[in-house]
Amino acid sequence: MPDHTRNIMKKIIVVNNPKNWKFHIPEAEIVSAKDYLTHHEYTTQKNVRVFNLCRDYSYQSKGYYVSLLAEARGHKVIPNVKNIRDFKAPAVVKIISDDIDELIQKSLHKLTGTEFVLSIYFGQNVSAQYLELSQELYRIFQAPLLRAKFVFKQKWFIQSIRPISVDEIPETHKDLVDKFAIEYFEKNRFVATKSDDYLYDLGILINPDEKEPPSNKQAIHNFIEAAQETGFRVELITKKDYHRVGEFDAIFIRETTNVNHHTYAFARRAQSEGIAVIDDPDSILRCSNKVYLQELMTVGKIPAPKTIIVHSENRNTLAKELGFPMVIKTPDSSFSLGVKKANDKEELEQILDTMFEHSDLLIAQEYTPTEFDWRIGILDGRPIYACKYYMAKDHWQIYNWESADKEEICGMFDCLPIESVPHGIVKTALRVANLIGNGLYGVDLKEVKGRPEVIEVNDNPSIDAGIEDQVGKKKLYLTIMRSLRHRIEDRLNAAQQKVIQHEREMWL
Fold first, then answer.
1. What is the mean pLDDT of residues 115-132?
2. Is the peptide bond before 279 cis (omega within 30 degrees of 0)?
3. Do residues 184 and 144 lie in contact, with contact meaning Cβ atoms separated by under 8 Å?
4. Which of 131, 181, 407, 436 is most buried as measured by Cβ atoms within 10 A of its Cβ?
5. What's the whole-model pTM score?
6. CA separation (Å) from 284 to 69, 132, 159, 265, 289?
7. What is the rounded end-to-end Cα distance, in angstroms, of the chain?
């Protein structure tokens, strides 16, 4: 567990030669690359943010090892090794050039030559006309000092981009660069003052425009309070902050997830950079596709309504196999969207024709009417809340999106203590969740003749204030935030052990 006496995030700026560092940054320690790599005190320090401003990041250089060992020590480092590798990958540079092509052409269209060099200082440029392009390239590569070379062949594109050292800044630029540096290091997420009582940085991913988000505004507020109590500095982020994932110790996704979506990209990037994330990309992948989920449950012998994976060659057998009515689902359906009930042959054919336009495989399931569905919230292999969701008025689902009355779109609900839920329901929910992973899941079940049947498993399940938190209240939010903190600390401890083991081996 981190030492609460170290609740101040320490800033370390690593350069090749501190004597050449000309900027005054309050509360930042200027350290040589050699000292950072060799002095034992930096190995054992926690709660550290490292800014690697070495002149060279090439493989096995001091700059490369600063970022590599910083990650091993559990320090937050800019740029990280992934960013460094991107500098050396022409394919990556080409992809990025293509991705931001519109911005490049807009920014450089007035130039008359065939080559242009852009110097990016802490995300800015000395000329305001190149500010947007400079900010975008910094967001992608996350190196405080950059130099990009553009060439014109029918249009402008990036030929190369590389980090630069303080020594490469022209004298005519240094006054402005000094201003940029002060602004950069004074950003809230980089500032470590005695009033800050936090251990880690948490980004909560939301979509302010989403009509039915997984958490309402009050729940988000409750998550923020719980996170702060757990030792997090919290920032609400949106899809435009993708480039900033590496600035955080943990990402908590509170936006409806899908594989073909930026939420999956956020989770994937967080995982690749060793950042704690709920939910992780594997959970999103496994829960988002109901074809995958159905196969997983079949192999795991999880009780479920009779289900058939539908394709063009077996569509004509469904009526015989399942009877009417039956339920048809698209593989990526959620919140009752993309789910239809076919009451007869004609209705079935219409539904299949429409859905096959978007997917080669569908899910057909026997219709099992019940008064309510169970939802068991599970995190880290443990149940954390339980709800009964009753069917919407005069409807067969808990949501009726076609209702003219907004008050009747969803049915009533009951939130119950876990110990009040039938044992078989909780046991079955845990069984299927364990097949998927140790993330945050909402397992939906029906109770048919006393027998639990799993309907589906949702990653990123709904947690709304006034509904899912009725029993657990503040404890529910704290449980989730503590899970994120434990994930961070498990990673840090593992990294620390690797460093200790490496140092032992060096002396053997």
1. 92
2. yes
3. yes
4. 181
5. 0.65
6. 31, 33, 36, 10, 9
7. 29
**Total structural domains within the chain:** 5
How far apart CA 245 and CA 139 sit, in angstroms, is 10
Backbone angles phi, psi at 121, to 5 degrees: -110, 110
- Asked if the structure places residue 171 within a domain, the reply is no
136 with 218, same domain: the answer is no
Q: Which residue has the higher pLDDT, 354 or 336?
A: 354
Q: Which two tokens stand for residue 235?
A: 């920032």
More confident residue, 85 or 151: 151
CATH number reported for the structural domain that contains residue 38 in this entry:
3.40.250
User: Which strands sit side by side in the sheet containing 362-366, from one edge to the other?
Assistant: 307-310, 362-366, 326-334, 337-342
Identity (one letter) of the amino acid at 386? A
Model pLDDT, residue 4: 42
Q: Give me the pLDDT at residue 403, please.
A: 61
Cα separation, 247 vs 491, in Å, equals 16
Mean pLDDT, rounded, for 30-50: 86
Residues 347, 358 within the same domain: yes
Residue 243 within a domain? yes
Residue of 489, 484, 501, 487 lying closest to 43 (CA atoms): 501
Contact 202/249 with Cβ under 8 angstroms?
A: yes
Residues 6+ apart with CB under 8 A from 217: none
CA distance 443 to 278: 16
Place of tokens 């880690």: 200
Residue 471: per-residue pLDDT? 96
Domain match, 481 and 459 both: no
Which residues have a Cβ under 8 Å from the Cβ of 367 and sit 6 or more positions away? Answer: 305, 322, 324, 325, 326, 327, 341, 396
Full DSSP string of 41-70: HHHH--SEEEEE--S--STTSHHHHHHHHH
Residues 385 and 445 in one domain: yes
Same-domain check for residues 335 and 310: yes
Domain boundary among 84, 107, 141: 84
Q: Domain check: are 325 and 341 in the same one? A: yes
Residues 336, 382 share a domain: no
361 and 415 share one domain: no
CATH of residue 319:
3.30.1490.20
Nearest alpha carbon to residue 27 among 51, 4, 5: 51
Amino acid at 205: L
Residue 71 lies in a domain: yes
Helices (H), 60-213: 62-72, 81-87, 90-99, 101-108, 131-141, 174-185
206-216 average pLDDT score: 92
Rg for the chain, CA atoms, rounded:
27
Inside any domain, residue 24: yes
Q: Which of 41, 58, 84 is the last residue of a domain?
A: 84
Residue 61, domain extent: 4-84
Higher-confidence residue of 299 and 185: namely 299
Coil, helix or strand for 177? helix
pLDDT at 461: 94
